[in-house]
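Annex B. Sample input.
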Amino acid sequence: MAARKKVADFGLWESHLDPEVLFVKGQAPNYPFRHKEQLYWLQVLSDEYSGKTVLCRAGNEDGGSSPEIITPLPFDVPQNFSIRTRVNEYGGKCFCVIDDYIVFNNYLDGCLYAQKIGHDTLSRTDGCLIDRCRYFAKLEGYDLPIKLAAWSDQPIPGFADISISPDSQWIVAVMEVPNDEGENECQIVKVRWQTNFSGEPGLQQIETLVSGADFYASPVISGDGSRLAWLEWSHPHMPWDQTRLMCADIDLGGFQPIRNQAAIIDHENWAVCQIGFLGDGDLIFASDNPECDFWNFYRYSPEGMYRQISHEHGEFGEAHWQFGQSRWQEISDGFIAAILTERDGDRIIELNTKTSEIRPMTNQLAALSQMSLSEDGVLLCMSCYENRVPSIVQVNRRGLNEISIEIDYCLDIDHVPVPEFVEFATSREGIAYGLFFSPLSPAYTGPDSQRPPLIVMIHGGPTGRSSRVYEGVRHHYCSLGFAVLDVNHRGSTGFGRAYRQSLMGNWGIDDCDDIAAGIGYLIRHQQIDPELVFIRGGSAGGYAVQRALTQHSELFCAGASYYGIGNLVTLSEITHRFESRYTDQLIGEEYDRDRARNPDSRYRQRSPIFEMDKLNCPLILFQGSDDKVVPPKLSHEVVELLKRKGIHHAYHEYAGEGHGFRNKNTKLAALSEEIGFFTDIIRKKRGMV
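Annex B, continued. Sample output.
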């Protein structure tokens, strides 16, 4: 017989979850691939190496046994290695495999390194890193990373979208370098891949292939090595607004490596992504132009013709926030496997690129990503679920087979809240969406006369997306007796171009209206306590928190802003290059330093810091000291104003953290402070203190 649950106030339950487990052992693997029948992936480490990204290898072909860490760690070598990049600040995939080597960007110096990943590596056990992992590192010889290319003696953002030419002679990548006269510069570059008489790679020269645009992504080479295609865009556009798809003839080893550059797609309001060459030489790409609204596939022939080959009411592409978002692979002549994002989940389909016929390969899951195809034809990707952390899966025409890599982490699937997909009317005759989670605990239930407090969660971007993918903080709040509404306001990705672009010019208005409409929907359906509504979000979500608290203050009793934006004027002056003109598009006004300070400027009108007199509830703020996207000055300005106005608040800044906390202790401390801040307010509201 099941134990009887204890009755206690919603929002004040004792959680059955261990936050440390959520943050430490919940780290997902990334970028899985196979090499010589061995499974590899990238892993973010925890504990004293928190934030470091290393290469791991499964102990056998099918996973199953203890993983092996290949990347050297600081106690073995003087050099610090982390397979991560700072290109565009948000980084992404920054490695490729050549012969028996992994070539990767090192986060700390922005240089290219090559490390052998064969089976002749020495091993030793180190249980403090990943549970039951074996750590592999040889302290001398070619098994340590060897510097392959460096821009200068000073650290740079580095390389991303690294790939190898079909003849294995050249590495092609996107590179970001400093510019003494202004913003950093982005280029597509080549680096020769060759080894000396001992079989070791040596330091090579970096040569520019393409330059001139503000940003580049996705350089891909045709199977015969004769053509290079890439994406480029320039301010003020973001890559999901408008991009150019370029193609050129190449001879990487020749005197003139790039010839006959031409734009395949260069249309207003066309955003292109997911480009690649098919085996027959045609180029495939996804576009969400206004005619098809959703990111669908197009096929371009060398003769200069392109045609749409999919017609789905869903997304084959996604917003380019990070490099290496591989969502399709050619599995046989004329057929690709591709990830299709629909309103409430992802599935893999098989698309006939000649006839446009589509066949499902998997059922719908919470999310799928990072698809790769090995030389022996094994298709891998990351699969995300509602009730546990992501896993690596092998895909075939019969569905998915999960690969166990023994990270030694499992959630109690009986007590993970199941989301309810909700849609609700909002301003300007619009519709907005969200995911609603009810409180859930194996030990507690709330009083019959009481409704739960609500946590409203706002994703970043604002071109982000809330999905059914398991999220530890969301789960933790539900286990404490909170209801959660994760909002996909206008501007969110995954609902078509028109929905995403509808926020342009209306940032700080429509998204806040959607938040308020979602709360109103839950109040009308009597699912929450209208007197106990909290809001939390980070980055653009942190801006939404501050903006909602000043525009709809009557709805909230407190908020938590993580590296949020209080002053759009300050943001435009000091933010990083990738998003330096994004705000112009979002609020519909080109930034001018003098005009932006005037009361009639949208920069001032949409900045929460100038309307703090409307704030009538407590606010807690969190910030990383090394944040380049939303620098600490943004939080400092808000905190100083809160102090002057005597508004109850708390502020926590964490040394060494950037945009998005990576250190386990930081995550634990911030969550603890936030929960304590909110539950104190619940007790006061209910007269318990």
